[in-house]
Amino acid sequence: MRPVTRTLLLSSVLLGLAACAPPPIYKIAPGTLAATPAQVAHTPEQFAQGQVIWGGRVVGVRNLPDHSEIEVLAYPIDSSQRPRFGAGASGRFIAIVPGYAEPMNYPGGAPITVDGQLGGTRVGKVGQADYVFPLVKIAQSHVWTPDEMRSGHPNVSFGVGVGVGIR
């Protein structure tokens, strides 16, 4: 195969794969922090008032008189800002929502991405262990559907042997 043909073929394949990935749901503002919740919990003064886009799994919702709190087990996010659960958790945080958050809209275990501003930390508990939770005043949040979590991930695999797949 000639080098020009090989280059065109490779470019076409890469372009096709890139077209499969959905775009990010939130615009990344200049100065958006790349720190994880664990890093912020460790040195909160270093990250005061920073903007973050974090994702993870909903642990629970707590409604208070004037706001609601969504506890999230954080995971790294992909280029579309979906949580990547295979990458290992990167701490916990509390997303603060003005007003009432319907718990049925944020079911336990649901994938979520939030965009917001850091607002300090709070000491709490995870089981019997003390834990420092970064607080995020969320401007926007998105609970991902199973279809959205699968989109952009081609259902193609390569291997040798016999297999059966059931969906």
Question: What features would you describe in this structure?
Answer:
It contains three helices and five strands. The chain has a single domain, classed as Nucleic acid-binding proteins (OB fold (Dihydrolipoamide Acetyltransferase, E2P), Beta Barrel). 24% of the residues are buried. With 167 residues, it is of the alpha+beta class. The chain is 17% helix and 36% strand. Keywords: Lipoprotein, Signal.
How many beta-strand elements?
5
Distance between the termini: 39 Å
Extract low-pLDDT stretches. Answer: 12-19, 154-159
The CATH architecture can be given as: Beta Barrel
| CATH top level label | Mainly Beta
What gross morphology would you assign?
globular
Largest sheet: 5 strands, mixed, barrel
Oligomer: single chain
Structure annotation, total helices: 3
**Cα Rg:** 19 Å
Describe, in short, the structure shown.
The protein has 167 residues and is an alpha+beta fold. The chain is built from three helices and five strands.
List strands and helices in order, with pairings.
Layout: H1 3-20, H2 37-42, E1 51-63, E2 67-75, E3 92-98, E4 111-126, E5 129-143, H3 146-150
Parallel strand pairs: 3-5
Antiparallel strand pairs: 1-2, 1-4, 2-3, 4-5
Signal peptide: 1-21
Protein name: Slp family lipoprotein
InterPro entries: OMP_Slp
Question: What descriptive keywords fit this protein?
Answer:
single chain; 167 residues; 5-stranded mixed β-barrel; 3 helices; 5 strands; Slp family lipoprotein; lipoprotein; OMP_Slp
